[in-house]
Amino acid sequence: MLDFHPRSYFKMVSKLAVAILSLASLASAHYTIPSLITDGAASAEWQYVRKTNNFNSQAPVTDVTSADFRCYTSETGATASTATVAAGSTIGLQANGPMYHNGVINVYMAKAPSDVSTWDGSGNVWFKVYEIPAVTDGGSTITFPGSNIQSFNFKVPQNLPSGQYLVRTEHIALHSASSFGGAQFYISCAQINVTGGGSGSPGPLVSIPGVYTGNEPGILINIYYPVPTSYIQPGPAVWSG
Ligand SMILES: *[C@@H]1O[C@H](CO)[C@@H](O)[C@H](O)[C@H]1NC(C)=O
Ligand SMILES: [Cu+2]
User: Fold this and answer.
1) Nearest CA to ligand 1 atom 12
2) Which residue's C-alpha comes closest to atom 5 of ligand 1?
3) Which of 225, 125, 223, 124 is nearest to 175 (CA)?
4) What's the gap in Å between 217 CA and the centre of ligand 2?
5) Cα-to-centroid distance, 4 and ligand 2 (Å)
6) Angle at 64 (CA atoms; ends 214, 97), nearest 5 degrees
7) What CATH number is given for 30-195 in this structure?
8) Domain-wise residue ranges, the chain
9) pLDDT at residue 235 is higher than 70
10) Residue in 42, 36, 76, 37 with CA at minimum distance from that of residue 57
């Protein structure tokens, strides 16, 4: 007697489907940047960082003119807790896994007019506080110190005025950036309350979106061939305070 069990057949097929699906999601598993590092310790995910639309999909932003290019929260509408940190101290950001795509990092800050938790970061208010560019040597090699790391640290500028700020991180993945819109931006915004600050005037100031067109030589770039002889980091100069 032929003993055919449709149920076990279905089970086997669905197991296979699950396996294929998880392979597919592995291949497209990018990353998010959900944790703020203070005093050398990473916070819980999305505690001080606004939960981004891609908290599940981990998909990047590719339109540098979209509203989501700022904090990527149009769907979550998220706000976060605000971490109090001293001016001059070291803070950092941590991704949910290695930021493995070849690319570069920028961190921008903007001072909230009052309560940062209800502020959207609009206006010509952003300045750069940190960057990890690509490294070139005149055409032999290009390397990406900002890739394959899970976290990085930088100093809150000593002369930054006290107050509440958004801290926006972007990891710009350049592995398919040779056509317009091909660069992938992994973005998140943290909320901090800076104490013991100074009287510096951060700048140059830019708006986000607005800071890029997508045609910048550090965004629209073929990183493979010919090997770039130099690399121009997108955005304004770092304000060191
Ligand atoms: C920011 O820090 C100041 C000084 O410690 C404190 O008085 C204030 O409550 C803090 N604000 C927030 C939102 O954490
Ligand atoms: Cu990816």
Assistant:
1) 193
2) 195
3) 223
4) 21
5) 43
6) 105
7) 2.70.50.70
8) 30-195
9) yes
10) 76
Structure tokens at 97: 């896994």
DSSP code of 212? -
What DSSP element (H or E) covers 41? strand 41-42
Q: What is the mean pLDDT of the chain?
A: 91
121 phi and psi angles, rounded to 5 deg: 75, 20
User: Tens digit of pLDDT for each residue in 14-50?
Assistant: 444 444 444 444 445 799 999 999 999 999 999 999 9
82 lines ligand 1 (CB under 6 A): yes
pTM of the predicted model, to two decimals? 0.89
- The pLDDT value recorded for residue 241 is 85
Cα of 30 from ligand 2 centre, angstroms: 4
Nearest partner of 190 among 114, 90, 117, 132, judged by Cα: 117
Please name the amino acid found at residue 98. Answer: P
